[in-house]
């Protein structure tokens, strides 16, 4: 693995480790364009301790190595075992294109060689904020996924224009329920299909339901089910570390949508190779979607939603395109992305106080039932993604799965018992808050009334994007809808 870090002057620096690291210095040999790293053993040790965060490590400088090389040798039992396991399992997948881009990006950068030998391979080095001669918000151009950036800029600019356009011109009556249907379907495709079914295997589904969820997920512009499930397993296993593709510790913007604009951190590849994705490889529907995602997205998420209103109830073609394809897609994407950002930063942690994910009501409403995130990271196998039943809290995704179970389309729904949940809360959760919540909602009457209120509020909040154009038309006297 290639390792280098630069400060804002383009000079190689070391900056992060803990106090148990043992340090040795062989020598420093100055060369053209090479910096003097440190002047004392103590300062050098302190800088390393601040950078690597490793225990029982041995770090040394090699002044005879080539100045344009930097290597990390993790010669320990765990690391070798992990490498051997990878060699024996051809089914562990990663994005090789991104990995190659990172390898190219790291060429000809460092000027001092640091050989590292640790007793574990859990280094947590921020590759993504290295400084070079030219940076954009602290990232080098080679670290940015320019195709994604251009696509996001295009769709969001178009969405702003579309929002203004639909505020000025009337919309046909049936277009409103049509875009609501498409938005809910896309949300279900991610929440129920890519997330609960394929990422966590929290229930099983018959092929008609699986096929429907694959098509619905394509509506969301959230990538295919395969890549979502693969990355989401990595997210759970290494949550809020550099091995997490959506690491919330890198900031709100990165967790929300910035991860989509940058190439993956090398730790995502390295740690992700430890996970088994054979079940995803053996699922023909999602591998088919993976191969044909771009044409499927164009057909299912853009062409079909636009043409149905135009031909079926004579909606204006521009209005149909703006509302059914552009606005609906952009709004749903941001609703779903609140799970990675809001629900990892703000909120309570009653089930596990030691992790970042939280309980977020706003995310619960916007993502159609994914906001009980502290619970979900504590009990990821729960098909409901929430301790409560769907009639107790706003959770349309769970309601849909329960209906499918009644129809025989879903089965083997997994859920931990109340005894197991309470036992976990006693050990690692906020027991006082949890017990208070149980007292408030202990009776059936309280649970039903809370559910009615929550569904009412959730429905209103989830439809927020419709309100500004409606309000503008009411204030300006423009026609709201036409038949």
Automatic annotation (TrEMBL):
Keywords carried by this UniProt record: Fatty acid biosynthesis, Fatty acid metabolism, Iron, Lipid biosynthesis, Lipid metabolism, Membrane, Oxidoreductase, Transmembrane, Transmembrane helix
Polar residues composition bias: residue spans: 48-72
Any one GO BP annotation for this protein: unsaturated fatty acid biosynthetic process
Record's compositionally biased regions (Low complexity): 12-30, 73-89
InterPro entries xref list: Acyl-CoA_DS (IPR015876), FA_desaturase_dom (IPR005804)
MF GO annotations: iron ion binding; stearoyl-CoA 9-desaturase activity
Membrane topology: Multi-pass membrane protein
Residues of the signal peptide: none
Regions of compositional bias (Basic and acidic residues) in chain numbering: 1-11, 90-102
Reported cofactor(s): Fe(2+)
Principal subcellular localisation of the protein: membrane
Pfam families xref list: FA_desaturase (PF00487)
Location of the protein in the cell: Membrane
Bilayer-spanning residue ranges: 149-166, 178-198, 292-312, 318-339, 452-470
Region Disordered, residue ranges: 1-31, 48-102
The organism's place on the tree of life at top rank: Eukaryota
One GO cellular component term noted in the UniProt record for this chain: endoplasmic reticulum membrane
Chain ranges of the Fatty acid desaturase domain: 177-388
Family in the record: Belongs to the fatty acid desaturase type 1 family.
PANTHER family: ACYL-COA DESATURASE, DESATURASE 1, ISOFORM A-RELATED
UniProt remark on domains: The histidine box domains are involved in binding the catalytic metal ions.
Entry protein name: Acyl-CoA desaturase 4
Organism: Sarcoptes scabiei
Lineage: Eukaryota, Metazoa, Ecdysozoa, Arthropoda, Chelicerata
């Amino acid at each position: 693995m290639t390792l280098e870090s630069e400060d804002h002057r383009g000079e190689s620096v070391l900056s992060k480790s803990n106090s148990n690291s043992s340090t040795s210095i062989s020598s420093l040999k100055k060369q053209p364009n090479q910096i003097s790293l440190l002047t004392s053993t103590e300062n050098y040790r302190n800088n390393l301790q601040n950078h690597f965060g490793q225990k029982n490590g041995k770090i040394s400088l090699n002044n005879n190595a080539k100045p344009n090389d930097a290597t990390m040798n993790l010669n320990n039992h765990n690391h070798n075992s992990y490498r051997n396991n990878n060699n024996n399992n051809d089914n562990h997948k990663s994005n090789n294109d991104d990995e190659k881009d990172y390898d190219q990006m790291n060429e000809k950068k460092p000027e001092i060689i640091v050989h590292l030998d640790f007793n574990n391979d859990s280094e947590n080095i921020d590759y993504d904020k290295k400084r070079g001669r030219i940076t954009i918000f602290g990232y080098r151009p080679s670290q940015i996924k320019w195709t994604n950036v251009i696509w996001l800029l295009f769709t969001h600019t178009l969405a702003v224009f579309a929002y203004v356009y639909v505020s000025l011109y009337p919309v046909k009556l049936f277009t409103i329920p049509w875009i609501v249907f498409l938005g809910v379907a896309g949300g279900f495709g991610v929440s129920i299909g890519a997330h609960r079914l394929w990422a966590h295997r929290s229930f099983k589904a018959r092929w008609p339901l699986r096929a429907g969820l694959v098509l619905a997920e394509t509506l969301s512009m959230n990538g295919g089910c395969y890549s979502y499930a693969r990355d989401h397993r990595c997210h759970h296993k290494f949550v809020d570390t550099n091995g997490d593709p959506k690491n919330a510790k890198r900031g709100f913007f990165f967790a929300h949508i910035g991860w989509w604009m940058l190439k993956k951190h090398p730790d995502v590849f390295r740690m992700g190779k430890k996970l088994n994705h054979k079940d995803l490889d053996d699922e023909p529907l999602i591998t088919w979607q993976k191969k044909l995602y771009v044409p499927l997205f164009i057909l299912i998420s853009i062409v079909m939603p636009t043409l149905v209103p135009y031909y079926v109830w004579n909606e204006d073609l521009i209005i149909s395109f703006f509302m059914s394809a552009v606005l609906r897609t952009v709004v749903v994407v941001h609703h779903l992305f609140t799970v990675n950002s809001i629900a990892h930063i703000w909120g309570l942690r009653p089930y596990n106080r030691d992790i970042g994910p939280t309980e977020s009501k706003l995310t619960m409403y916007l993502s159609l039932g994914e906001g009980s995130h502290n619970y979900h990271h504590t009990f990821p196998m729960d098909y409901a993604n929430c301790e409560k039943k769907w009639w107790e809290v706003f959770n349309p995704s769970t309601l849909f799965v329960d209906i499918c179970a009644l129809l025989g389309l879903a089965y083997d729904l997994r859920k931990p018992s109340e005894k197991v949940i309470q036992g976990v809360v006693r050990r690692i959760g906020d027991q006082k808050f949890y017990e208070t919540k149980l007292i408030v909602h202990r009776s059936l009457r309280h649970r039903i009334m809370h559910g009615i209120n929550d569904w009412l509020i959730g429905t209103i909040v989830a439809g927020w994007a419709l309100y500004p154009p409606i309000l503008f038309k009411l204030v300006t006297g423009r026609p709201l809808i036409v038949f």
